[in-house]
Amino acid sequence: MSHEPEIRFLSDSTILDCEWSKKYFTLTTILASLAKKHGPVMLLHIGHVPTIVISSAKAAKEALKTRDPDFCGRPPKFCAARLTYGYSDMGFAPYGEYWRQMRKITSLELYGSRRMQSFLAASRIDELDTLLKSFASSAAKGEAVDLGEKLFAFSSGTMFKITYGTSFKGSMTDDKGFEKLINEAEGLLGAFASADYFGYPDLILAGVDTSALTTNWAMTELMSNPSAMKKAQDEIRHSMAGKTQISKQDIESLKYLKMVLKETLRLHPPAPLMPPKVTTADTQIFGYDIKAGTRVYMNVWAIGRDPETWEDPEKFFPERFEESPIDYRGQHFELIPFGSGRRMCPGYTMGLATIELALANMLHRFDWKLPEGMRKEDISVEEGAGLTTYKKLPLRLVPVVKC
Ligand code: HEM
Predict the structure, then answer these.
(1) Is 403 annotated as belonging to a binding site?
(2) Distances 142 to 125, 322, 371 between C-alpha atoms, Å
(3) What number does CATH give the domain 12-401?
(4) Residue 243: how many CA atoms within 13 Å on its side-chain side?
(5) Whose CA is nearest to atom 26 of ligand 1?
(6) Each residue's pLDDT tens digit, 36-87
(7) DSSP class of residue 294?
(8) Measuring CA to CA, which of 196, 223, 270, 347 is 20 to 30 A from 378?
(9) pLDDT over 90 at 260, yes or no
(10) Which residues does residue 145 pair with via DSSP β-bridges, in sequence order?
(11) Which positions make up the signal peptide (predicted)?
(12) Where are the alpha helices (DSSP H) in 335-374?
């Protein structure tokens, strides 16, 4: 007989008991600890909102593959409606005809188009040049850089140029200037204006933070694991000998770098609970009845650290992917940092290319040192609370020019 999953109430002591509460103390980790006790499908009442939390690869597969049409709505949110002029973007849009059309148009004109790929490559190269020059200037002075800040500038600069067709000058909070920019956009926003598609949140919000955070976490893990850093640098320097800048094509041969990225996304998915979804019909999961309109969180963070799937899950060990078929393109539910199914991230190749290019060039051109007096054990892996997994404490490193 089917029934609802159990309702759990969170008390202070439950939360403080959480296994991960000392190292990371965020909603994601609290939910991950609760799932260890109460199972991979939990029903919580957050205020008056019934919410199910899915925390295993098997349950994720049922929701995102077997019953994907029932699990692909987005809950209405006041701030999202304001930000997107009434859900005229794609990421926050409710499941329906408008979303379907936008997904179709953007996959043809944006994520899959050749024109777009060359536009993107040119924008990325300009911004990468700026990033590497700024590291070289700090290297000359022997000063430490805040890596997160620099990577955010690189990622936002690239996305901004693609979106608006110009470099960003001024302030994002200057409403008038910003509106003028949108109206006069020659980049993608200009191209999409005729389709009434408001792509600013999709490109800037979904694309900037996620790519910058992943690169910053990869550097954090590499600095904490010098043997992995050496292996990654040896691979790049060996296969790119004689080159000063690595291109997107060069990266295809960098197998270890790709494993480093997979391992980083396993441990630090930038959207640890995925953007919330809502069920579009009465449905079931794991034999439990779920009503239409139930909010759904997919705990990708917990799935990436599930000891049933991963040996020594807390360890950063890129070699685990050496002989493994597991990939993050939405077919292996053990590793779904980009989601899966019809709402899966459409920008994942764009995001991965930006991250790989930054990381490969940073590791090729520079050695990285911790600031005076700091040991690798002092590097913090603490996560801040928020929609995306940012580092609570900045990673400050001193670049040293190698070539
Ligand atoms: C490391 C980089 C990135 C990660 C980890 C990531 C992750 C995700 C995740 C988990 C989702 C939600 C999937 C779901 O609800 O099932 C998503 C959706 C989305 N992402 Fe990404 N993303 C990344 C980069 C990008 C980039 C570069 C872009 C655009 C240029 C982008 C655009 C979008 C859009 C538009 C959606 C909403 C899709 C929809 O609702 O139909 N993402 N992303």
Answers:
(1) no
(2) 25, 37, 10
(3) 1.10.630.10
(4) 15
(5) 207
(6) 888 899 998 877 889 999 999 999 999 999 999 999 999 988 788 887 878 8
(7) -
(8) 270
(9) yes
(10) 397
(11) none
(12) 348-365
ipTM of the complex: 0.99
Q: How far is the CA of 177 from the centre of ligand 1 (A)?
A: 27
Going by alpha carbons, the residue nearest to atom 6 of ligand 1 is 338
Instruction: Give me the long-range contacts of 310-315 (CB less than 8 A, separation at least 24).
Output: 310/266, 310/334, 314/267
Cα(345) to centroid(ligand 1), Å: 4
- Ligand 1 midpoint to CA 19 (Å): 29
Residue length of the chain:
403
Q: Tell me the C-alpha distance between 55 and 63, whole Å.
A: 11
Distance 3 CA to ligand 1 centre (A): 33
Tokens encoding 46: 């957050």
CA distance 92 to 85: 11
Residue list, ligand 1 pocket, CB within 6 Å: 90-91, 103, 202-203, 206-207, 210-211, 214, 270-271, 274-275, 337-339, 343-348, 350-351
pTM: 0.90
> Is 398 in a helix, a strand, or coil?
strand
What is the position in ligand 1's atom list of the atom closest to the CA of 269? 5
Q: Is the dihedral of CA 102, 212, 382, 364 positive or negative?
A: positive
- Tell which residue, 351, 342, 353, has the closest CA to residue 103: 342
Give mean pLDDT, residues 237-259.
90
The preferred substitution site among 333, 336, 345, 359 for testing ligand 1, maximizing ligand atoms within 8 Å of CB, is 345
41-46/7-8 β-pairing:
parallel
Alpha helices in 165-205 (DSSP H): 175-183, 188-192, 200
Output the six-digit token pair for 373: 């007096």
Give residue for tokens 């000359």: 140
pLDDT digits (tens, 9 = 90+) for 122-133: 777 888 999 999
Q: Is 359 exposed, middle or buried (0-12, 13-18, 19+ CB in 10 A)?
A: buried
Q: Which of 149-163, 218-232, 376-390 holds the top average pLDDT? A: 218-232
Which protein residue has the closest C-alpha to ligand 1 atom 11? Answer: 345
Tokens in use for 9? Answer: 């109430």
**Per-domain residue ranges of the chain:** 12-401
Q: Can you say how many angstroms the Cα of residue 150 is from the centroid of all Cα atoms in its chain?
A: 17
